[in-house]
Design goal:
Two copies of one chain form a homodimer. Chain A contains 19 helices and 24 strands. The first copy, chain A, is α/β, with parallel strands linked by helices and 618 residues long. In chain A, the strands form three sheets. Chain A has an eight-stranded parallel beta barrel, surrounded by six helices. In chain A, strands 14-15-13-9-12-11-10-16 form an eight-stranded mixed beta sheet, with helices on one face. Chain A has an eight-stranded mixed beta sheet with strand order 18-19-20-17-21-24-23-22, with helices on both faces. In chain A, helix 1 packs across helix 12, helix 3 packs across helix 4 and helix 4 packs parallel to helix 5. Chain A is elongated. The interface between A and B is large, with 55 and 55 residues.
Chain lengths: 618, 618
């Protein structure tokens, strides 16, 4: 099926919007009238630009307050329509959207509405144009899709059909049985299908529609379910995104258009009309990679945590540090530093140590990469230098490199093969102790990836759709200078957990460091080891522990230990969570966590205290 | 009455919040528990800090899910409460807020609620503490103030009273008769009064409360009406602001605290419990002042518009340009340039020509300044140099200097007296024509003041409360890169109009230029004069005029004239509006407007086209 996007869904000038839509691979666009009016290009020039870009103009929109009006008003509406049809002829657009009247002059008279729409359709037909009549959720008398369809049916005019819009339908829907009626409409009378999702906000529907629509899969609507109903009618027109969203209005058009088309590809897969390579859900975290100009502070921190430098890359200045199953790559190659690679706005303080890549264990790296590529993720060069293993890797929307790994699996390229063991121990950092003899149960519990402000929902959809991870509940966390929003994506057994976090405003994407959380079976021992080695943990205010004492009962001495080391505590219905934080090195810090009894969260209740303590140190 | 503010209403660390509250003149604070937990200060140190700052700790909050619970849960609640009361004793706080239970375990049993709150109050009394019980609007069984009061009355415990919160009451209120019941509560049983306003959003009340509260006078609630009811009970406790607001969480605490206290002062005046100097509503715009490093481009523009350089300041490099009643000061004093004076964030491109001051005709400049000072507006030095007229002036929240003028009024200081007439005509700018012989009906129609992102509601309240101007409807305007919000403040006859506009995100405060709109009785003649003199007007796309033809009927040739000159057109129920825009000089542009038949707006329908055209030139 054709895919389209309304120009109002993207930022910038009309030219910028068209270019972004074409580059993302859309087949067509809906031209939003205000974008035409504000453009210095003539309709003929816009038509030519679209043709050059390979874009059809699938819809011109909107026409408002045309039907069910007193005669004088209707005559004025026809006059406006004649002008618009002339513009559309110059554009080469053959379908116009007419929204149900909101005018206080409109009357509740379906016969009049049908008669006037017929008259409009006569005029349209003379210009070779079709009229797609849509019920706005806040229409004065016509606000449901079935009501709009009854009027179209009554009119019985070949140039008059209906337009279905998932927002207007699903924002009012009381359940699936509302939607079954869609299948009673003949597909050839559905002239257009506009798609948008939205978070379930329970707010005034007009404001909800104008500010909070989002791309399918990023909200709470079952858009795919609606599409399935529409397809059963025989509808063969485009799937078109019409999204009004305050964030997209500000974001760059190019990435937004890619996000938009990825959403439609996933929707088509979900609706059963497109086959994509199946997801190969990651089964573990192979490693996290830090890039730095100065390895010493990171090395000291890792050594203090009992990591040993076990190997180095054969061709690049990259060292592998390990403890148990936890692996961290420390990369000092200046060319790897993401000064310009990571997408970032505002401050852009991406100097110092940064977290740039995550290795994900994949049951089928090549298949995972094929799916990512089909879903418009940039696929990174497989073999970067002669002799290196041909590793599959893709870039996430934020620029993070995701390596699809097959560690120690015969017959598959192994990232570990690019490393040679270091026989002598790494030179001990000042005050650090020898590498831990036992593993301490160490593994990477989660990697927290701070996202650019404009791209949070895109990131969640990417990790769900491309990697097959499950988004968890979204939580708001109070930082002293604004609210953060955080949502983890995980695999089913929790062996891959990637909390995605976004700041309170543009520019905040660089205000919060990323971090690697290391799971251990004894967080007290791990924390004490670090402090004994001269390392420092984030200091936690005494007031926090006084409050913990009021909230939970602890064994003798337990709370004193937490207080001494700066260990935070949380509990849910399943179990307990103990965690503490290292100081921040550059733009990265480490967390030590101990999960007991099946605790599933990330200590969100403690985040305000942690964030305030980190702010206090800056 | 005492004034207080909840620490959650301000950004930053607890220390920063306390300092900001004290500097703004609050008498006390509500300590929000999370602020205490995140603070490295002990309760004793916080108590001492407050004492040093002259702040009382009027409330400790919140305690949740205490009442109407099964015995085991209640026992755990009492254990938590005992710890909290000990913390409160260390803080020296004597009142605790208890919110009605939201726990799914809570039962609908007022007798049980009363009995358990009595038991809690026993424990509180032993610590010298009072319990203020508040109905959350989303409480599980208790969600109205009268229900909470009935439970408190049933308990009949001297250490148990109620807390009234304007948000929880007014967000659920169906009208004034709901509120009359407040007066049935004995004042001494109202232990606390929390105040917040909110825009009328019609959304889920919990989200509305957590993200969109604002200071009284900045939303849609009749907070003063509620306060009047409370005062009739004999309540003598503090008026305390408790505002959860995503913007305030990010804004600097200092200015937010001043904004907060100004709101309370105005609320007290409105409730009849504080007398402030009466407003002296401005009666006209005396001048607008531009500061620039290079006067030539501005001078050329003014000359092209028929302005003449008529006078210069006796002591400073400031020139007066006039046409009719429109006066523009051009100031080339480097010391006047607001590189650092105007509050600005992000890009901070305040170089080039900027609009820094507005002269407002005042019926009583000294009284107006006294009111401004009483409302915490910085009063600027009256006489800046020997021999200058002693002019009253205050700074608006955005740093704009507002001069309170008495032009040509005997016995009052006159700004014009600081200027000496220029006898010879100003040297004509290249291509400019001689000053216009007739006035063309020129006067300043409006001065559009772009506001910093975090301070929009503050600016509206300032202009309303301090100057006595009336806020008009708020409108959203689509710029190609985000939505702008605009709201004009005006006097009754429209001779003073100040549209306040804010961008879509922090940093956008510098993205949009300010402008001076000049009213004329013949915008076509004024526009043609400028272009004939070689000046340029903002080019408007042809598509805009094609659409105008569809929307309105014009006299023969009229539309062609608008098209030729770039004049935009709008119409409302009263009349017509024609306007056009000059190119931007530095960070300022001029607009020519013609209002006919009582048109009241600012051409908001044309703003997206204008903004896109301005973006295209950048």
């Amino acid at each position: 099926m054709r895919t389209s996007i309304a120009t109002v869904s993207l930022s910038g000038s009309l030219t910028e919007k068209l270019t972004a839509a074409a580059r993302a691979g859309f087949d067509g666009v809906e031209i939003f009238e205000n974008d035409l009016l504000a453009s210095p290009l003539t309709p003929e020039e816009i038509r030519a630009r679209c043709a050059d870009l390979g874009l059809g103009i699938d819809l011109y929109q909107p026409m408002r307050d045309v039907e069910a009006l007193p005669a004088g008003e209707f005559a004025r509406g026809l006059r406006r329509a004649r002008h618009k049809f002339e513009v559309m002829s110059r554009l080469g657009a053959d379908t116009v959207l007419v929204c149900s009247s909101v005018s206080p002059l409109a009357v509740d008279d379906d016969a009049l509405a049908a008669a006037q729409l017929s008259e409009l359709a006569d005029l349209a037909r003379d210009h070779g144009i079709r009229v797609a009549y849509e019920a706005l959720a806040w229409g004065r008398h016509v606000s449901t899709y079935d009501h709009a369809w009854r009027i179209v049916e009554t009119a019985g005019h070949p140039a008059l059909g209906t337009c279905l819009d998932s927002f207007h339908i699903l924002s009012r829907s009381s359940g699936p049985k509302d939607l079954a009626g869609i299948e009673d409409i003949p597909g050839e009378k559905i002239f257009f299908l506009q798609l948008a999702d939205a978070p379930l906000l329970g707010m005034d529907v007009l404001q909800w529609s104008r500010h909070h629509r989002c791309f399918p899969g990023q909200g709470g609507f079952d858009v795919a379910g609606l599409v399935r109903h529409v397809l059963r009618t025989g509808y063969e027109g485009p799937l078109s995104l019409e999204v009004f969203n305050d964030v997209f209005r500000q974001a760059e058009a190019g990435p937004t258009a890619v996000d938009a088309r990825r959403s439609l590809l996933l929707l088509q897969e979900e609706a059963g009309i497109r086959t994509l390579p199946a997801p190969a859900v990651p089964t573990g975290i192979a490693f996290a990679e830090l890039v730095t100009h100065d390895a010493e502070p990171v090395a000291a921190l890792l050594a203090g945590l009992g990591f040993a430098r076990t190997a180095r890359h054969r061709g690049k200045p990259v060292e592998l540090w390990e403890r148990g199953e936890a692996r961290v790559l420390v990369n000092t190659d200046p060319a790897a530093h993401p000064h310009t690679r990571l997408r970032s706005r505002g401050g852009n303080h991406l100097d110092g140590t940064v977290l740039t890549a995550v290795g994900l264990e994949s049951p089928d790296p090549a298949a995972a990469a094929r799916r990512a590529e089909a879903l418009l993720a940039p696929v990174l060069p497989r073999r970067r230098a002669p002799g290196e293993a041909p590793l599959d890797a893709v870039a996430a929307p934020d620029g993070t490199e995701l390596f699809l790994c097959a560690t120690n699996r015969p017959g598959l390229p192994d990232w570990r093969a690019d490393f040679e063991d270091v026989t002598q121990p790494a030179p001990a950092a000042p005050g650090s102790s020898a590498p831990a003899a036992d593993s301490g149960g160490f593994r990477i519990d989660h990697v927290a990836l701070t996202q650019p402000w404009h791209h949070f929902d895109e990131a969640v959809l990417f990790h769900r759709g491309v990697l097959g991870l499950d988004p968890q509940e979204s939580v708001d966390v109070a930082d002293p200078y604004g609210l953060l929003r955080s949502r983890a994506v995980t695999n089913a057994d929790g062996s891959v957990r990637l909390p995605l976090t976004v700041g309170a405003a543009p520019g905040d994407d660089t205000a919060h460091a990323r971090h690697i959380a290391l799971a251990t079976d004894d967080v007290v021992a791990a924390a004490r080891r670090l402090t004994d080695a001269g390392g420092r943990l984030l200091p936690v205010p005494a007031n926090y522990y006084d409050d913990l004492a009021a909230r939970f009962e602890f064994a003798e001495g337990e709370l004193e230990t937490y207080r001494e080391l700066g260990i935070l505590y949380d509990r849910d219905a399943c179990g307990a969570f103990r965690h503490c934080f290292t100081h921040t090195v550059g733009r990265v810090f480490l967390e030590l966590v101990q999960r007991d009894g099946g605790y599933q969260g990330y200590g969100a209740a403690n985040a305000p205290v942690r964030l305030a303590a980190q702010r206090a140190l800056r």
